[in-house]
Design brief:
It is a single chain. The protein is of the alpha+beta class. The strands form seven sheets. Strands 17-18-16-15-21-22-23 form a seven-stranded mixed β-sheet. A six-stranded mixed β-sheet has the order 3-2-1-5-14-13, sandwiched between helices. Strand 21, helix 13 and strand 22 form a beta-alpha-beta unit. The longest helix is centred in the C-terminal third of the chain and has 27 residues. The radius of gyration is 22 Å and the shape is globular.
Length: 499
């Protein structure tokens, strides 16, 4: 029997392929970045063909690195950036446009128009999601309205839509030659076209947004047999797991009980709490979403707080201002000062997500004096992520009635000790980092492993978990609240900057 599982982790800035053993340990990994395309202010695109090429390369690179063959993998899972919207031709497989990325704000005026029509509550009731530039629905409608002939081709089933998982799954299983056009419930729940109760495409929403049903993928569970890879380094391997990246991290952290939560610090920042087998409508600016569905078991739901800009702000400091040469340098720079020097950075580059959902917000730096220097700015950049996380935690505790005793964390930014300590300080409770940081890819592998019998049950997955480090609060409570008060004051200045 094959001894390993593979996971394709297609993220906002790069694509990775990872191989895990039965203990959930990394055996091999390979990663490649892809371009961020900005045709206009507020527009963010990816080249689907470039993502496909990166996916093929990282799969072959990782297997070669570990001297493994496709036959050594029991199955492979897929996890992906969510909401990013792709359309491609059924006959040839060619993309019909660049992918519109989840961060893109080109449909801001449409959000305002639809909200003015009084339809926001209906959409949220059926999907668990507020009207926002974030989700796929209005992005897809924009493509249908702006690419000549696309709507007619979509109605005839000649043009296909999917989030990144669906595009990769279709290509991997044969593309034009019998490729499977499907997605899982977690990704489908982020399109704003899926009914949360029925877990099916909602006819009323499709009519409202003007989306032809013929272009939509099948909706399947997160852990089941999808098909075999038809070409490339993984040829013959079973694809048996598909999860949106944040849901995959929840699974990778083994948050299988209601009330268990994790926060992932990546390009954005995403806090998810398992709320069990029934969707709960948020009253405090959070999303209700599908956490996972394993095989024929009932779906499990989650509350989610989404922060648009976290690690992306560090990249902005590096690429746009040139204050650091590499993202890893920010901690050392920030440590050269004792505090933020009164500087607060609200990174509302594409509006603010949870708990505000204010698409008119824009980024600002507040509290500047002649005393402030680049180190204070670096510190303010890191602290912005922690402040935003506290806002989401407070909203989640109000919605769930559960006080988090500690915060489980994962993602690239959790290697930054200064950020994690400040996170514990501003939350006033411990922050816990697992020994396995690659929880997103691990969650996709877990889903594939459960579907194929590689793992017996969820208890076996829990046993793989181990804690690497815990940060405990050290900040005086009065200082904590004063810093948070000033953060909230800065946020208030950023709201509705764009009318």
């Amino acid at each position: 029997m094959a001894d390993y599982l593979g996971a394709i982790d297609q993220g906002t800035t790069s694509t990775r392929f990872m191989v895990f053993d039965r203990r959930g340990r990394v055996v091999a990994r390979a990663q490649r970045e892809h371009r961020q395309i900005h045709p206009q202010a507020g527009w963010v695109e990816h080249d689907p063909e470039e993502i496909w090429q990166c996916t093929q390369r990282v799969c072959s690179d990782a297997l070669r690195q570990a001297q493994l063959r496709a036959a050594d993998l029991a199955a492979v899972g897929i996890t992906n950036q969510r909401e990013t919207t792709l359309v491609w031709e059924r006959r040839s497989g060619q993309p019909l446009a660049n992918a519109i990325v989840w961060q893109d704000t080109r449909v801001s005026s449409e959000v305002s128009r639809v909200a003015a029509e009084g339809k926001a509550d209906l959409v949220r009731y059926r999907t668990g999601l507020p009207l926002s530039t974030y989700f796929s629905s209005l992005k897809l409608r924009w493509l249908l309205d702006n690419i000549p002939g696309l709507r007619e081709r979509a109605q005839d089933g000649e043009a296909l839509f999917g989030t990144v998982d669906a595009f990769l799954l279709w290509r991997l299983t044969g593309g034009p030659n019998g490729g499977l056009h499907a997605t899982d419930v977690t990704n489908a729940s982020r399109t704003q076209l899926l009914n949360l109760e029925t877990l099916s495409w909602d006819d009323g929403l499709l009519e409202f947004f003007g989306i032809p049903r013929a272009m939509l993928p099948q909706v399947r569970s997160s852990s089941e047999y999808y098909g075999e890879v038809a070409q490339g380094a993984l040829q013959g391997v079973v694809i048996a797991g598909v999860l949106g990246d944040q849901q995959a991290a929840l699974v990778g952290q083994a948050c299988f009980r209601p009330g268990e939560a994790k926060n992932t610090y990546g390009t954005g920042c995403f806090l998810l709490m398992n709320i069990g087998g029934r969707p709960v409508a948020s009253q405090h600016g959070l999303l209700t979403t599908v956490a996972y569905r394993f095989s024929r078991q009932p779906a499990v739901y989650a509350l989610e707080g989404s922060v648009a800009v976290a690690g992306a702000l560090v990249q902005w400091l590096r690429d746009k201002l040139g204050i650091i040469g590499a993202s890893s340098e920010i901690e050392a720079l920030a440590r050269t000062v004792e505090d933020n020097g009164g500087v607060y950075f609200v990174p509302a580059f594409s509006g603010l997500y949870a708990p505000y959902w204010n698409s008119g917000a824009r980024g600002l730096i507040a509290g500047l004096t002649a005393y402030a220097n680049k180190a204070h700015l670096a510190r303010a950049v890191l602290e912005a992520t922690a402040f935003q996380t506290r806002e989401v935690v407070e909203a989640m505790e109000k919605d769930s009635g559960v006080r988090l005793q500690s915060l489980r964390v994962d993602g690239g930014m959790v290697l930054n000790h200064l950020l994690m300590q400040f996170q514990a300080d501003i939350l006033g409770r411990p922050v816990v980092r697992p020994a396995m940081l690659e929880t997103t890819a691990l969650g996709a592998a877990y889903a594939a492993g459960l579907a194929t019998g590689f793992f017996s049950d969820m208890d076996e997955l829990r046993q793989n978990g181990a804690v690497d480090h815990t940060w405990v609060p050290q900040l005086d409570p009065a200082q904590r609240e004063e810093k948070y008060r000033l953060w909230k004051k800065a946020v208030a200045r950023s709201l509705d900057w764009i009318d």
